Give the backbone structure.
Amino acid sequence: MFYRMAGVYHTRYDRARALWPVPADRWQIIVVFALALAAPFYLSDLYLGSYALPWLIWSAATLSLTLLMGLAGQLHFGFAAVMAIGAYTSIHLARLGIPFELALLGAGIAAALIGALFGAAALRVKGLYLVMATLAMQYLVDWVINNVPAISGGAQATLRTPPASFLLVSLESLEVRYYLALVWAVLLAVFFMNIKRTSFGRALVAIRDKDFAAAVIGIDPFRYKLLAFFTSSFVGGVSGALLAFCYYRAVTPEQFGFNVSIQLVAMVLVGGLGSVIGGFLGAGFVLLVPIILTNLVSGLAASGFLTVSSNLLAHLPLMIYGALIIGFLIFEPLGLAKIYDNIRKYFLVWPFRHSRS
Protein backbone atom coordinates (compact mmCIF):
# COMPACT_ATOMS: atom_id res chain seq x y z
CA MET A 1 0.00 0.00 0.00
CA PHE A 2 3.04 2.30 0.06
CA TYR A 3 3.06 3.05 -3.68
CA ARG A 4 0.02 5.25 -4.09
CA MET A 5 -1.14 8.41 -5.79
CA ALA A 6 -3.92 8.65 -3.21
CA GLY A 7 -3.38 11.60 -0.90
CA VAL A 8 -1.11 13.40 -3.38
CA TYR A 9 -2.83 16.73 -4.04
CA HIS A 10 -1.26 19.47 -6.16
CA THR A 11 -2.14 22.98 -5.07
CA ARG A 12 0.80 24.71 -6.76
CA TYR A 13 2.19 24.46 -10.27
CA ASP A 14 5.74 23.80 -9.09
CA ARG A 15 4.49 20.81 -7.08
CA ALA A 16 2.60 19.51 -10.11
CA ARG A 17 5.75 19.79 -12.23
CA ALA A 18 7.94 18.01 -9.68
CA LEU A 19 10.21 15.25 -10.97
CA TRP A 20 8.90 12.75 -8.42
CA PRO A 21 5.35 13.63 -7.35
CA VAL A 22 4.80 10.21 -5.76
CA PRO A 23 6.41 10.05 -2.28
CA ALA A 24 7.53 6.46 -2.84
CA ASP A 25 9.54 7.58 -5.86
CA ARG A 26 11.35 10.17 -3.76
CA TRP A 27 12.16 7.62 -1.08
CA GLN A 28 13.38 5.19 -3.72
CA ILE A 29 15.78 7.81 -5.11
CA ILE A 30 17.01 8.64 -1.59
CA VAL A 31 17.67 4.97 -0.80
CA VAL A 32 19.50 4.35 -4.09
CA PHE A 33 21.59 7.51 -3.65
CA ALA A 34 22.44 6.54 -0.05
CA LEU A 35 23.54 3.08 -1.20
CA ALA A 36 25.69 4.64 -3.92
CA LEU A 37 27.33 7.01 -1.42
CA ALA A 38 28.05 4.16 0.99
CA ALA A 39 29.31 1.75 -1.70
CA PRO A 40 33.03 2.13 -0.77
CA PHE A 41 32.20 0.99 2.78
CA TYR A 42 30.43 -2.28 1.92
CA LEU A 43 32.02 -3.19 -1.44
CA SER A 44 35.51 -4.59 -1.81
CA ASP A 45 38.05 -2.81 -4.00
CA LEU A 46 37.55 -5.49 -6.65
CA TYR A 47 33.81 -4.89 -6.98
CA LEU A 48 34.14 -1.13 -6.54
CA GLY A 49 36.88 -0.68 -9.15
CA SER A 50 35.85 -3.40 -11.61
CA TYR A 51 32.06 -3.14 -11.53
CA ALA A 52 30.62 -0.04 -9.83
CA LEU A 53 33.14 2.51 -11.15
CA PRO A 54 32.98 1.54 -14.87
CA TRP A 55 29.20 1.17 -14.63
CA LEU A 56 28.85 4.80 -13.50
CA ILE A 57 31.17 6.13 -16.21
CA TRP A 58 29.56 4.12 -19.00
CA SER A 59 26.13 5.15 -17.72
CA ALA A 60 27.21 8.77 -18.10
CA ALA A 61 28.44 8.02 -21.64
CA THR A 62 25.12 6.32 -22.41
CA LEU A 63 23.20 9.36 -21.20
CA SER A 64 25.41 11.52 -23.43
CA LEU A 65 24.43 9.46 -26.47
CA THR A 66 20.82 9.26 -25.31
CA LEU A 67 20.61 13.04 -25.55
CA LEU A 68 21.41 12.76 -29.26
CA MET A 69 19.62 9.54 -30.19
CA GLY A 70 16.72 9.47 -27.76
CA LEU A 71 15.87 13.16 -27.54
CA ALA A 72 16.94 14.54 -30.91
CA GLY A 73 16.44 11.33 -32.90
CA GLN A 74 19.88 11.52 -34.57
CA LEU A 75 21.76 8.26 -35.12
CA HIS A 76 25.43 8.20 -34.13
CA PHE A 77 27.63 5.15 -34.69
CA GLY A 78 30.91 6.88 -33.94
CA PHE A 79 30.44 8.04 -30.36
CA ALA A 80 33.50 6.14 -29.15
CA ALA A 81 35.54 8.53 -31.29
CA VAL A 82 34.02 11.45 -29.38
CA MET A 83 35.08 9.85 -26.10
CA ALA A 84 38.54 9.18 -27.53
CA ILE A 85 38.95 12.87 -28.37
CA GLY A 86 38.07 13.78 -24.79
CA ALA A 87 40.38 11.13 -23.32
CA TYR A 88 43.46 12.04 -25.36
CA THR A 89 42.86 15.79 -25.04
CA SER A 90 42.60 15.61 -21.26
CA ILE A 91 45.80 13.54 -20.98
CA HIS A 92 47.83 15.95 -23.11
CA LEU A 93 46.45 18.98 -21.27
CA ALA A 94 47.26 17.40 -17.91
CA ARG A 95 50.79 16.60 -19.12
CA LEU A 96 51.25 20.28 -19.93
CA GLY A 97 50.57 21.10 -16.28
CA ILE A 98 47.01 22.35 -16.74
CA PRO A 99 44.79 21.62 -13.70
CA PHE A 100 42.60 18.57 -14.10
CA GLU A 101 39.41 20.62 -13.78
CA LEU A 102 40.42 22.73 -16.79
CA ALA A 103 41.63 19.63 -18.62
CA LEU A 104 38.14 18.15 -18.29
CA LEU A 105 36.67 21.36 -19.66
CA GLY A 106 39.17 21.38 -22.52
CA ALA A 107 38.38 17.74 -23.30
CA GLY A 108 34.68 18.54 -23.51
CA ILE A 109 35.24 21.59 -25.72
CA ALA A 110 37.57 19.73 -28.10
CA ALA A 111 35.11 16.84 -28.44
CA ALA A 112 32.19 19.27 -28.88
CA LEU A 113 33.91 21.27 -31.61
CA ILE A 114 34.97 18.21 -33.61
CA GLY A 115 31.66 16.47 -33.01
CA ALA A 116 29.71 19.55 -34.10
CA LEU A 117 31.95 19.87 -37.17
CA PHE A 118 31.10 16.35 -38.29
CA GLY A 119 27.51 16.90 -37.20
CA ALA A 120 27.19 19.95 -39.44
CA ALA A 121 28.32 17.87 -42.41
CA ALA A 122 26.14 14.92 -41.44
CA LEU A 123 22.94 16.89 -40.83
CA ARG A 124 22.43 17.38 -44.54
CA VAL A 125 21.45 13.71 -44.72
CA LYS A 126 19.17 11.38 -42.75
CA GLY A 127 18.76 7.73 -41.83
CA LEU A 128 21.39 5.33 -43.12
CA TYR A 129 23.27 8.19 -44.77
CA LEU A 130 23.67 9.83 -41.35
CA VAL A 131 24.93 6.51 -39.98
CA MET A 132 27.56 6.38 -42.72
CA ALA A 133 28.62 9.97 -41.95
CA THR A 134 29.12 9.18 -38.26
CA LEU A 135 31.00 6.00 -39.21
CA ALA A 136 33.32 8.18 -41.26
CA MET A 137 34.04 10.19 -38.12
CA GLN A 138 34.82 7.00 -36.20
CA TYR A 139 37.26 5.68 -38.79
CA LEU A 140 38.89 9.06 -39.38
CA VAL A 141 39.52 9.62 -35.66
CA ASP A 142 40.84 6.04 -35.37
CA TRP A 143 43.26 6.67 -38.25
CA VAL A 144 44.50 9.95 -36.79
CA ILE A 145 45.07 8.42 -33.36
CA ASN A 146 46.96 5.45 -34.82
CA ASN A 147 49.06 7.38 -37.30
CA VAL A 148 49.91 10.63 -35.52
CA PRO A 149 52.55 9.84 -32.86
CA ALA A 150 52.12 13.26 -31.28
CA ILE A 151 48.63 12.21 -30.16
CA SER A 152 48.92 8.56 -29.19
CA GLY A 153 52.63 7.87 -29.31
CA GLY A 154 52.21 5.70 -32.39
CA ALA A 155 50.14 2.70 -33.44
CA GLN A 156 49.48 0.19 -30.64
CA ALA A 157 51.08 2.60 -28.16
CA THR A 158 49.87 2.99 -24.59
CA LEU A 159 49.48 6.51 -23.24
CA ARG A 160 49.49 6.63 -19.46
CA THR A 161 47.56 9.27 -17.56
CA PRO A 162 49.70 11.63 -15.47
CA PRO A 163 49.06 12.10 -11.73
CA ALA A 164 46.07 14.39 -11.27
CA SER A 165 43.89 15.83 -8.54
CA PHE A 166 40.35 17.15 -8.53
CA LEU A 167 39.62 20.09 -6.22
CA LEU A 168 43.01 19.49 -4.55
CA VAL A 169 42.15 15.82 -3.84
CA SER A 170 44.44 13.27 -5.48
CA LEU A 171 42.88 10.78 -7.89
CA GLU A 172 45.26 8.02 -6.81
CA SER A 173 42.65 6.75 -4.35
CA LEU A 174 40.02 4.40 -5.77
CA GLU A 175 37.36 5.89 -3.51
CA VAL A 176 38.04 9.41 -4.79
CA ARG A 177 37.80 8.24 -8.40
CA TYR A 178 34.54 6.44 -7.61
CA TYR A 179 32.98 9.52 -6.01
CA LEU A 180 34.09 11.70 -8.94
CA ALA A 181 32.39 9.30 -11.36
CA LEU A 182 29.30 9.23 -9.11
CA VAL A 183 29.06 13.03 -9.05
CA TRP A 184 29.37 13.21 -12.85
CA ALA A 185 26.72 10.51 -13.38
CA VAL A 186 24.30 12.22 -10.97
CA LEU A 187 24.88 15.63 -12.59
CA LEU A 188 24.18 14.19 -16.04
CA ALA A 189 21.05 12.40 -14.80
CA VAL A 190 19.66 15.60 -13.26
CA PHE A 191 20.62 17.56 -16.38
CA PHE A 192 18.88 15.09 -18.67
CA MET A 193 15.72 14.96 -16.56
CA ASN A 194 15.44 18.74 -16.63
CA ILE A 195 16.46 19.41 -20.23
CA LYS A 196 13.31 17.68 -21.45
CA ARG A 197 11.30 20.32 -19.57
CA THR A 198 13.05 23.26 -21.30
CA SER A 199 12.32 24.91 -24.64
CA PHE A 200 15.54 23.38 -26.01
CA GLY A 201 14.43 19.87 -25.05
CA ARG A 202 10.92 20.36 -26.41
CA ALA A 203 12.37 21.65 -29.68
CA LEU A 204 14.54 18.53 -29.97
CA VAL A 205 11.52 16.29 -29.34
CA ALA A 206 9.56 18.15 -32.02
CA ILE A 207 12.43 17.70 -34.49
CA ARG A 208 12.73 14.02 -33.57
CA ASP A 209 9.04 13.42 -34.30
CA LYS A 210 8.76 15.48 -37.53
CA ASP A 211 11.51 17.89 -38.42
CA PHE A 212 9.61 19.57 -41.25
CA ALA A 213 6.59 20.06 -38.99
CA ALA A 214 8.90 21.61 -36.38
CA ALA A 215 10.22 23.98 -39.05
CA VAL A 216 6.63 25.05 -39.84
CA ILE A 217 6.08 26.21 -36.24
CA GLY A 218 9.30 28.24 -36.23
CA ILE A 219 11.95 25.77 -34.99
CA ASP A 220 15.21 25.77 -36.95
CA PRO A 221 16.01 22.04 -37.35
CA PHE A 222 19.62 22.55 -38.45
CA ARG A 223 20.42 24.85 -35.54
CA TYR A 224 18.91 22.61 -32.88
CA LYS A 225 20.38 19.43 -34.35
CA LEU A 226 23.79 21.11 -34.35
CA LEU A 227 23.28 22.16 -30.73
CA ALA A 228 22.34 18.57 -29.90
CA PHE A 229 25.55 17.30 -31.51
CA PHE A 230 27.56 19.96 -29.67
CA THR A 231 26.01 19.27 -26.24
CA SER A 232 26.12 15.50 -26.59
CA SER A 233 29.74 15.58 -27.77
CA PHE A 234 30.76 17.88 -24.91
CA VAL A 235 29.43 15.61 -22.18
CA GLY A 236 30.72 12.58 -24.10
CA GLY A 237 34.20 14.09 -24.22
CA VAL A 238 34.18 14.72 -20.47
CA SER A 239 32.96 11.15 -19.92
CA GLY A 240 35.84 9.89 -22.07
CA ALA A 241 38.32 11.90 -20.00
CA LEU A 242 36.90 10.47 -16.77
CA LEU A 243 37.05 6.99 -18.27
CA ALA A 244 40.75 7.49 -18.97
CA PHE A 245 41.71 9.02 -15.60
CA CYS A 246 39.36 7.19 -13.25
CA TYR A 247 39.17 3.70 -14.75
CA TYR A 248 41.67 2.84 -17.49
CA ARG A 249 44.57 4.96 -16.12
CA ALA A 250 46.20 4.35 -19.52
CA VAL A 251 44.60 4.52 -22.97
CA THR A 252 45.20 2.73 -26.25
CA PRO A 253 43.44 3.19 -29.62
CA GLU A 254 41.70 -0.20 -29.23
CA GLN A 255 39.77 1.06 -26.21
CA PHE A 256 37.78 3.46 -28.41
CA GLY A 257 37.26 1.38 -31.54
CA PHE A 258 34.15 0.81 -33.60
CA ASN A 259 33.04 -2.10 -31.40
CA VAL A 260 32.82 0.34 -28.46
CA SER A 261 30.52 2.59 -30.50
CA ILE A 262 28.28 -0.40 -31.18
CA GLN A 263 28.24 -1.23 -27.47
CA LEU A 264 27.17 2.33 -26.66
CA VAL A 265 24.32 2.12 -29.17
CA ALA A 266 23.32 -1.22 -27.62
CA MET A 267 23.30 0.39 -24.15
CA VAL A 268 20.95 3.10 -25.39
CA LEU A 269 18.61 0.70 -27.19
CA VAL A 270 18.49 -1.98 -24.50
CA GLY A 271 18.05 0.59 -21.75
CA GLY A 272 15.37 2.57 -23.56
CA LEU A 273 15.56 5.57 -25.87
CA GLY A 274 15.17 8.91 -24.13
CA SER A 275 15.13 7.46 -20.61
CA VAL A 276 17.41 8.42 -17.73
CA ILE A 277 16.98 5.19 -15.81
CA GLY A 278 17.35 3.36 -19.12
CA GLY A 279 20.87 4.77 -19.44
CA PHE A 280 21.89 3.18 -16.15
CA LEU A 281 20.03 -0.09 -16.80
CA GLY A 282 21.35 -0.39 -20.36
CA ALA A 283 24.95 0.25 -19.33
CA GLY A 284 24.63 -2.25 -16.48
CA PHE A 285 23.12 -4.87 -18.79
CA VAL A 286 25.77 -4.58 -21.52
CA LEU A 287 28.68 -4.40 -19.05
CA LEU A 288 27.68 -6.75 -16.26
CA VAL A 289 25.39 -9.43 -17.75
CA PRO A 290 28.15 -11.06 -19.87
CA ILE A 291 30.35 -11.30 -16.75
CA ILE A 292 27.50 -12.74 -14.68
CA LEU A 293 26.60 -15.26 -17.38
CA THR A 294 30.23 -16.33 -17.77
CA ASN A 295 30.58 -16.93 -14.02
CA LEU A 296 27.21 -18.73 -13.90
CA VAL A 297 27.97 -21.05 -16.81
CA SER A 298 31.47 -21.75 -15.48
CA GLY A 299 30.04 -22.53 -12.03
CA LEU A 300 27.43 -24.90 -13.47
CA ALA A 301 30.07 -26.66 -15.56
CA ALA A 302 32.44 -27.01 -12.59
CA SER A 303 29.69 -28.47 -10.39
CA GLY A 304 28.69 -31.02 -13.03
CA PHE A 305 25.22 -29.63 -13.78
CA LEU A 306 26.31 -28.60 -17.29
CA THR A 307 28.29 -31.06 -19.40
CA VAL A 308 29.34 -29.39 -22.64
CA SER A 309 32.53 -29.15 -24.60
CA SER A 310 35.12 -26.54 -23.71
CA ASN A 311 34.57 -24.78 -27.04
CA LEU A 312 30.81 -24.47 -26.45
CA LEU A 313 31.44 -23.47 -22.85
CA ALA A 314 33.53 -20.52 -24.03
CA HIS A 315 30.82 -19.28 -26.41
CA LEU A 316 27.68 -20.20 -24.43
CA PRO A 317 27.57 -16.97 -22.32
CA LEU A 318 27.77 -14.81 -25.45
CA MET A 319 25.03 -16.90 -27.10
CA ILE A 320 22.74 -16.43 -24.10
CA TYR A 321 23.62 -12.73 -23.98
CA GLY A 322 22.77 -12.27 -27.65
CA ALA A 323 19.50 -14.15 -27.19
CA LEU A 324 18.57 -11.84 -24.30
CA ILE A 325 19.17 -8.74 -26.44
CA ILE A 326 17.06 -10.19 -29.27
CA GLY A 327 14.36 -11.06 -26.75
CA PHE A 328 14.28 -7.49 -25.45
CA LEU A 329 14.02 -6.07 -28.95
CA ILE A 330 11.19 -8.46 -29.83
CA PHE A 331 9.07 -8.49 -26.67
CA GLU A 332 9.87 -5.02 -25.30
CA PRO A 333 11.39 -2.77 -27.96
CA LEU A 334 11.19 0.20 -25.58
CA GLY A 335 13.89 -1.39 -23.42
CA LEU A 336 14.49 -2.08 -19.75
CA ALA A 337 13.14 1.34 -18.79
CA LYS A 338 9.71 0.33 -20.08
CA ILE A 339 9.82 -2.90 -18.10
CA TYR A 340 10.64 -0.89 -14.98
CA ASP A 341 7.81 1.53 -15.79
CA ASN A 342 5.35 -1.36 -16.19
CA ILE A 343 6.34 -2.74 -12.79
CA ARG A 344 6.03 0.70 -11.22
CA LYS A 345 2.56 1.25 -12.69
CA TYR A 346 1.49 -2.17 -11.45
CA PHE A 347 2.35 -1.22 -7.88
CA LEU A 348 0.55 2.11 -8.24
CA VAL A 349 -2.78 0.22 -8.27
CA TRP A 350 -1.82 -2.98 -6.42
CA PRO A 351 -3.65 -4.95 -4.99
CA PHE A 352 -6.44 -3.64 -7.20
CA ARG A 353 -6.70 -4.13 -10.94
CA HIS A 354 -7.81 -2.06 -13.87
CA SER A 355 -11.25 -3.09 -14.99
CA ARG A 356 -11.47 -4.64 -18.43
CA SER A 357 -14.47 -3.95 -20.63
Q: What stands out?
A: Residues 221-248 form the longest helix (28 residues). The radius of gyration is 22 Å.
